[in-house]
Automatic annotation (TrEMBL):
Sorted UniProt keywords: Dioxygenase, Iron, Metal-binding, Oxidoreductase
NCBIfam families named among the record's database cross-references: ectoine_ThpD (TIGR02408)
Keyword check for Metal-binding: yes
Subunit structure, as described in the record: Homodimer.
Single GO term (MF): 2-oxoglutarate-dependent dioxygenase activity
Protein name per Swiss-Prot or TrEMBL: Ectoine hydroxylase
Length: 302
């Protein structure tokens, strides 16, 4: 095993290194671009800066959604996809939890990456050209869809993928109705301005279990209680076609789904080309490229 610990002096967000948790101030901006840099208006951009997220009522039209839902079904029935290492199943069942690098697995989902409604907003928020750090569909099937415990994506991407600064944004597009009861995305509004330094070293090949249920790199209950009492918890509901864009450091999670109604979303993570991943800051080795891209080519179709 080649050791890749990044002892770099530029570790502004140390995590998984100390014996105690810590709440650190964010030293990075949130919205890097301005109102004139893309489709997001000034009021929404200010709200994004303050809360760490924005919502879009109808990003995709119903007929577009139908096409993506058909693709979801096709992927879930494709034997090659089911055998692919990029397909992650739920704990305790063979139900599909996620398909990573879905923009390469599927030409249909690839169209979202260069869609100006998507990448135009990402470039505006990040204030630069962007590349896809990660993409996935989360199926969260009815009855057996498991939870995604509280976490900051950036904490993982910093520790395990070597992402230096907080200059990445996720878009989550609902492909099925996100009800109050079928395991919708929860975000603590404003939590993106606090970095929770977690306790516990990253095991070898951590992704093999973390993508099915993350433990290492999740905050301790006291830190979560402080953030939840300070910020509250927003639950994102909305019809298929609605979307949420959220900062890489938002504290978020989602409950399991015991209803008959799947909560399937597609996620695309855009990182600034000025924030490309280095060596992991707190992990023995890099994660596979289908989870953390090492091709930093900017998304085209400017
Ligand atoms: O480890 C990761 O990169 C993934 N894990 C979670 C729970 N959210 C972000 C990302 O999909
Ligand atoms: Fe996440």
């Amino acid at each position: 095993m080649i050791e890749h610990p990044n002892p770099g002096p530029n570790d502004l967000y140390p995590t998984r290194k100390a014996g105690e948790p810590a709440l650190l101030y964010r030293t990075d901006p949130v919205a890097y671009g301005g109102p004139g840099d893309g489709p997001i208006d000034a009021e929404t951009l200010t709200s994004y800066d303050e809360k760490g997220f924005l919502t879009i009522e109808e990003l995709l039209a119903p007929e577009e959604i139908e096409r993506y839902r058909a693709e979801l079904r096709r992927l879930s029935e494709d034997e090659a996809v089911l055998r692919d290492e990029r397909t992650v199943t739920e704990r305790g069942s063979d139900e599909i939890r996620s398909i990573f690098e879905v923009h390469k697995v599927s030409e249909v989902f690839a169209e979202l990456v260069t869609d100006p409604r998507v990448v135009g907003r990402a470039r505006q928020i990040l204030g630069s050209d962007v590349y896809v750090h990660q993409s996935r569909v989360n199926y969260k099937p009815g009855f057996k869809g498991k939870d995604f415990y509280w976490h900051s994506d950036f904490e993982t991407w910093h520790a395990e993928d070597g992402m230096p600064r907080m200059r990445a944004v996720s878009i989550s597009i609902a492909l099925t109705e996100n009800f109050v009861h079928n395991g919708g995305l929860m975000i603590m509004p404003g939590s993106h301005r606090t970095f929770v330094s977690c306790v516990g070293e990253t095991p070898n090949d951590h992704y093999k279990e973390s993508l099915r249920g993350q433990e290492i790199g999740t905050p301790d209950p006291d830190s979560l209680s402080i953030l939840a009492n300070k910020h509250g918890i927003d639950l994102f509901t909305g019809p298929a076609g609605s979307a949420t864009m959220f900062d890489c450091n938002c504290m978020h999670g989602s409950n399991g789904n015991i209803t008959p109604f799947p909560r399937s979303n597609v996620f695309i993570v855009f990182n600034s080309v000025e924030n490309t991943c280095e060596e992991p800051f707190a992990a023995p080795s890099r994660r596979p490229e289908f989870i953390a891209a090492r091709d930093f080519t900017p998304v085209g179709d400017r």
